[in-house]
């Protein structure tokens, strides 16, 4: 039996975020998603927010709190990529990715923690990536932003861990999404060769790990990095 909670998933209008929101709805939670455009799954409340803007984040939380109550489970999933080789990467390519993926997570975690401290309960789940620890050519900005989430979660754990709040990171590998579906067959085969499991994950497989981490059974797990990558990033 899971306790019904108020959940906010950032970037919940597509891909992994959408699947995570769906999974929480299926388990009977009250779910809101942030999106810059598009909508979350049926049964969720979609609020407009830009995670690079603290005022926008604050307004989104205020809207969710009024409709569903204080956020008890936060999934920081909103992210962007601007892949290019280091020597071609502009300052803006780097700072914009870090501002969305890492500073954006900081903004939503900071705003959510107020209500969590009051309730003496909270689950913070940061969606990183296997490349955050493994590295990836052409993704200096993305990889740096995703590895930064580990330090964020671990410091939050040390600050807030005694108040019933956990902060964890999940590190997905290759996932079957619209983005991976567009890759040429040969490239997909090449990637699959590097994955011990020999296949990409489904978004649902990632979502189920997130809902488990957010649940009552995972209350003693904090500051952890949970890979969902078919063995791709082992040893990291």
Note down, in words, how this protein is organized.
The protein is α/β, with parallel strands linked by helices. The protein has one domain: NAD(P)-binding Rossmann-like Domain (Rossmann fold), CATH 3.40.50.720. Helix content is 45%, strand content 16%. The protein contains 8 helices and 7 strands; from the N terminus they run E-H-E-E-H-E-H-E-H-H-E-H-H-H-E. The chain has helices at residues 15-26, 54-68, 91-119, 131-134, 140-160, 178-181, 185-194, 203-214; strands spanning 6-10, 30-35, 45-48, 73-76, 122-127, 165-172, 225-228. It has a 7-stranded parallel sheet with strand order 3-2-1-4-5-6-7, with helices on both faces. Helix 1 (15-26) crosses helix 8 (203-214), helix 2 runs parallel beside helix 3 and helix 3 packs parallel to helix 5. The protein is globular. The chain starts with 5 loop residues before the first strand and ends in an 8-residue tail after the last strand. It comes from Lacisediminihabitans profunda. Keywords: Oxidoreductase. GO terms for molecular function: oxidoreductase activity. Belongs to the short-chain dehydrogenases/reductases (SDR) family.
Topology:
Layout: E1 6-10, H1 15-26, E2 30-35, E3 45-48, H2 54-68, E4 73-76, H3 91-119, E5 122-127, H4 131-134, H5 140-160, E6 165-172, H6 178-181, H7 185-194, H8 203-214, E7 225-228
Parallel strand pairs: 1-2, 1-4, 2-3, 4-5, 5-6, 6-7
Helix pairs in contact: 1-8, 2-3, 3-5
């Amino acid at each position: 039996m899971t306790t019904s909670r108020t959940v906010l998933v950032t970037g919940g209008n597509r891909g992994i975020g959408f699947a995570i929101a769906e999974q929480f709805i299926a388990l009977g939670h009250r779910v809101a998603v942030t999106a810059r455009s598009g909508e979350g799954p049926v049964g969720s409340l979609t609020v407009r927010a830009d995670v690079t803007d603290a005022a926008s984040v604050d307004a989104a939380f205020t809207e969710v709190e009024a409709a569903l109550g204080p956020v008890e489970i936060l999934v920081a999933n909103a992210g962007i990529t601007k892949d290019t080789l280091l020597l071609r990467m502009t300052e803006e390519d780097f700072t914009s990715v870090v501002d969305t993926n890492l500073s954006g997570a900081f903004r939503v975690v900071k705003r959510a923690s107020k209500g969590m401290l009051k309730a003496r309960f909270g689950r913070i789940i940061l969606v990183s990536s296997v490349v955050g620890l493994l590295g990836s050519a052409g993704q200096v900005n993305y990889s740096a932003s995703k590895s930064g989430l580990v330090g964020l979660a671990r410091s939050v754990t040390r600050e807030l861990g005694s108040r019933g709040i956990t902060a964890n990171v999940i590190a997905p590998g290759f996932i079957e999404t619209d983005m991976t579906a567009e890759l040429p067959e040969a490239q997909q085969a090449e990637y699959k060769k590097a994955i011990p499991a020999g296949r990409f994950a489904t978004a649902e497989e990632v979502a189920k790990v997130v809902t488990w981490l957010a649940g009552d059974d995972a209350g003693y797990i904090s500051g952890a990095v949970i890979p969902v990558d078919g063995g791709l990033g082992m040893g990291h």
